Amino acid sequence: MTLSLAFPWALLLLPAPWVVWRFVPPYRDRTSAIRIPFFRQITEATGLEPKSGAVVLQRRRVQMIAAILCWGLLVIGLARPELLGQQITVEKAARDMVLAVDISGSMDAHDMTDAAGERQQRLQVVKDVVGKFIEARDGDRIALIVFGSRAFVQTPFTEDLASVKELLETTQVGMAGPHTAIGDAIGLAIRTFETSEVDQRLLVLLSDGADTTSTMSPVNAAEIAAQQGVSIFTIGVGDPEGSGEDKVDLKALEDIAARANGAFYYATDSEGLEQVYAEIERLNPRITETVSFQPKQPLAWMPFGLAAVIALLATGWLHLSTRRKATA
Questions:
Q1: In sequence order, what are the residues at sequence separation of 6 or more whose Cβ sits closer than 8 angstroms to the Cβ of residue 307?
Q2: Which of 1-5, 202-206, 320-324 ranks highest by mean pLDDT?
Q3: C-alpha distances in angstroms, 26 versus 54, 68, 210?
Q4: Residue range 190-241, pLDDT digits in tens
Q5: ∠19-299-80 over CA atoms, to 5°?
Q6: What burial letters (b/e) apply to 225-239, b meaning 16+ CB within 10 Å?
Q7: Strand order in the sheet with 200-207
Q8: Does pLDDT of 71 surpass 90?
Q9: By the 8 A CB rule, do 179 and 147 touch?
């Protein structure tokens, strides 16, 4: 730790009292007097020599010492002394990312395989892979959106990745309704990005079905996202040969990504999903901002307080000494 002055120019005020004493004439105050015809006789009787001009009162030594100390301490306080700690450098990502995860009824299908090759529920495989992806986003701000018949913000933008992962783990199939509203999820992501102040904005949208209930078409939502500087990466995990809402609309997901300056991927198992997220990270390397700051502990209160104490002690001493002389 080092001692520093935040406003060292204040030290130029230190000689100000001497300049005033040296170049400014003493204060003159006119007072009433009595004229007597025998003034000379009185002076001769008292042995005093009459002089012309004003009388300049002499200050006591205690007064001078206290005044010099108080002024010096006040100037030091105005210079704002502070204790500087070790410089701290923080590196943070200049990227905000929204993860939009489909939890419609079709995500309950058990047609995806895990790392061991065993069939698992679609949503469970997605949660496992996305959870690892979230853990690797250290420094990024992430928001989580889940959607089915409607879209909901599970977490707004936060750097608390553990909470985002935990909330993702608690989601269940059908919590947001049985249908799929991809357009509404994109629209909600755009609104979520309104609080973002960074340039790199990324939406990763994962769905296994075709849009059926959105109030805004996914394509129109993607175009608005592109205008807002949001890139959309879509991931399809359903069966393209299925029927109804269980059939993933790969063409629509590909069109969304193309209109929003992103990319489209299709994954059939956990290994494929991991490769998709690795590719997304490769195409969008994290931009970092380095912020340096130095902890400061202000100390101006110390000279100000000491000056007040000295002034009080000097005033008290002068008052007591005056009373002693008056009673003597």
A1: 69, 70, 73, 74, 77
A2: 202-206
A3: 9, 18, 94
A4: 999 988 887 788 899 998 867 888 888 899 999 999 999 999 999 888 666 6
A5: 40
A6: bbeeebbbbbbbbbb
A7: 151-158, 141-147, 95-102, 200-207, 230-236, 263-266
A8: yes
A9: no
The confidence score (pLDDT) of residue 223 equals: 93
Residue 312 pLDDT greater than 90, yes or no: yes
Burial 32-57 (b: 16+ CB within 10 A, else e): eeeeeeeeeeeeeeeeeeeeeeeeee
Tokens of residue 241, six digits: 């040969």
Length of the chain equals: 328
Checking DSSP bridges between strand 95-102 and strand 141-147, what pairing results, if any? parallel
Strands (E), the chain: 2-5, 81-84, 88-93, 95-102, 112-113, 119-120, 141-147, 151-158, 200-207, 230-236, 263-266, 288-293, 296-298
| Cβ 156 vs Cβ 111: under 8 Å | no
CB atoms within 10 A of CB 9: 9
154 in Cβ contact with 167 (< 8 Å): yes
Exposure class string for 296-316: b at 16+ Cβ within 10 A, else e: eeebbeebeebbeebbeebee
Closest CA to 185 of 155, 219, 148, 220: 148
Q: Which has the closest alpha carbon to 106: 172, 169, 31, 173? A: 173
Under a CB-based contact definition with an 8 Å cutoff, are residues 206 and 102 in contact? yes
In the chain the first and final C-alpha atoms are separated, in Å, by 55
Only one residue has tokens 């935990």, namely: 166
- Compute φ and ψ for 234, nearest 5 degrees: -105, 145
CA–centroid distance for 269 within its chain: 40
